[in-house]
Amino acid sequence: MKVIEVKDLVFRYPGNREEIIKGISFQVEQGxxxxxxxxxxxxxxxxxxxxxxxxxxxxxxxxxxxxxLSEYRQKELAKIISxxxxxxxxxxxxTVDEYLELGRYPHSGIFKSLKKQDxxxxxxxxxxxxxxxxxxxxxxxxxxGELARVRIARTIVQDGGIFLMDEPTAHLDIxxxxxxxxxxRRLKAHLKTIIIILHDVGMAFKYADEILLMDKGEIxxxxxxxxxxxxxxxxxxxxxxxxxxxxxxxxxx
Length: 253
Prior knowledge:
The chain is an alpha/beta fold and 253 residues long.
């Protein structure tokens, strides 16, 4: 079943004639783990913002669960898509528990009290991400690794069927990167659809099932990772690439 379908999408920033997204089309099936990769300026984060309705395309259509994105209210969309932006947490004066509770407001309403079901979801997210021991601490007291766990927990609490993430592994040590991507693999087993933007191509290839390769606003490849031609990666990233089972090795040309 298609959860997201993009058709002939074109986008330019206001006052700029250059197309940042150049007529791209693709569809994502339920339960997929898709990694979006490409060099800086490829249009990855712009696509992320278009799917979240933060930007409006010049032409083309985005559908979520068979319904045009333009027909969704923002709050309704937040119930379906659990989004994790690349930006750091804005209000670090919150406690971890307070921050997680905010993830339920698309469902409960910001001026309404949370219900038992909401708190159960929060507790479950804390267990999955192993943050129970510091859930009463303030966000500004946490390390980058701890904050990464909290941000993933917030995404789980939001309880959308689609997880859309922009560079969640940025600035993390390798052990925290491995933990985060392994956690996403486990969530996929519960029919969650994972769409994640990654700069680390090797990690993308190791953990994702499908690769969406972008360059200069175009899709160069979308499909199963095992069918991706290393020569295409060499062309886009301007490096030598060797494919060894489930890993990629990169060398200077």
